[in-house]
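Run log, item B.
One chain of 257 residues. Sequence copied directly from the ordering sheet:
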Amino acid sequence: MASKTQALATFMLLSSVLTFSWSRAEGGGGIAVYWGQDSREGDLSVACDTGKYAIVLLAFLNTFGAGRTPAWNFAGHCDNGALKKCTELESEIKYCQGKGIKVLLSIGGAKDYSNYSLSSAEDAKSVANYLYSNFLSGQWGPLGSVTLDGIDFDIEVTEDHWDDLARELDYFRQTTGTYFYLSAAPQCPIPVYYLGKAIATKLFDYVFVQFYNNPDCAYDAIIMPLRACFIACYVCTGSSSLSIRLLLFATVFLYQK
């Protein structure tokens, strides 16, 4: 996700504008928020206590793949870098989940502030194993003893092997008996950069289209909701079918001055 300079950089696409049949991701709408990129935004529990959000995405695990030691950047909320733990978030994650809010880990982020890629299908398998073992399996991990609700793909470098990563994560869903969510945050220009092949797998439960920082399709008073819906449909279906089912969310990036 690109760097934000506004207090709240928002891209609006409400589920009330256009609704599809939804099988895996239950619920009729809501707001998803990216949390973790500004120490002044307050604790995770503060975001969950607002009553505004249905999904909170922890941003970002921004270093991984191609032999790199995984690392994240949660601004000043905890220590950043390789092999760092952030177990102080354990109680806050469980608090949010106890309120019925889904908490996902977002991987990737703006390329200028990150260092990630996948070098092969085998590399994708290795990253999937790391993500499942450390964040989705219930085992003790970098965030403590928590089971996150899923993984968000906020990819802004190369399109190679993100579809393989989605398939490998789905393999764990199919073989472990534990369902977790996959979401993607493609930018709004067409054709879809970076995540097109991954979304085409139709394994994603949520797709959060980035209607900002892209002048040709940024959401504003000129771009009417119907046009935004058309872009979202094209992004999520490749314009060929509506067999992928999605829940259209209003999504914000939480940032406070």
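Observations after the first pass:
- The chain has a mean pLDDT of 79.
- The longest strand covers residues 55-64.
Flagged for discussion on Thursday.
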